[in-house]
């Protein structure tokens, strides 16, 4: 069973949130034009991203991001305004998800299209939408702090354009 499948089987899911921006542990990273995900937890996290390309919708994954580190998912200036993210905690079984359904696979994947996931041999997962406002770079920070009211929280990153 792959990384994503093992995580979906777990029943105890901690309350996890997504925050856009960075914290002190990631503040020393140089500014660059790209889409980065920072893992502010102490656990290994698997991440998938979705976006609209010239040929249509694409989902890609899995990036494995160790605790307290960042990874670049898309290098260079961003070409789309909207990006979609899904992540799973490898150790505690929680996930960062959203209402936008896209396709994922058990192992490394790059999938064209977001319809008929199961019929095409993939799994369906709910991705969270990020409106980058057409900025050249964006950072999402994954945390395990509870959000007020149970809703995902987004916090601005001081001195950046990352919402």
Automatic annotation (TrEMBL):
Signal peptide (UniProt feature, chain positions): 1-33
Keyword DNA repair: no
InterPro entries to which the protein is assigned, alphabetical: DUF1036
Keywords annotated in UniProt: Signal
UniProt cross-references to Pfam families, sorted A to Z: DUF1036 (PF06282)
Keyword Signal carried by entry: yes
Biased composition (Low complexity): 146-163
Region (Disordered): 144-163
Protein name (database record): DUF1036 domain-containing protein
PROSITE patterns: PROKAR_LIPOPROTEIN
Taxonomic superkingdom: Bacteria
């Amino acid at each position: 069973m792959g990384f994503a499948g093992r995580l979906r089987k777990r029943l105890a899911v901690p309350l996890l949130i997504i925050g856009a921006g960075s914290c002190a542990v990631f503040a020393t990273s140089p500014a660059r034009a790209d889409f980065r995900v920072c893992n502010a937890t102490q656990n290994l996290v698997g991440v998938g991203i979705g976006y609209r390309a010239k040929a249509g919708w694409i989902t890609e994954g899995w990036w494995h991001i160790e605790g307290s580190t960042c990874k670049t998912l898309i290098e260079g200036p961003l070409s789309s305004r909207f990006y979609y993210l899904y992540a799973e905690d490898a150790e505690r079984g929680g996930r960062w998800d959203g209402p936008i359904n896209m396709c994922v696979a058990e192992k490394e994947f790059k999938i064209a299209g977001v319809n008929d996931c199961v019929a095409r041999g993939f799994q369906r997962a709910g991705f969270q939408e990020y409106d980058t406002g057409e900025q050249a770079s964006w950072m999402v920070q994954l945390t395990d702090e509870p959000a007020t009211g149970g809703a995902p929280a987004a916090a601005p990153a001081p001195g950046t354009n990352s919402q």
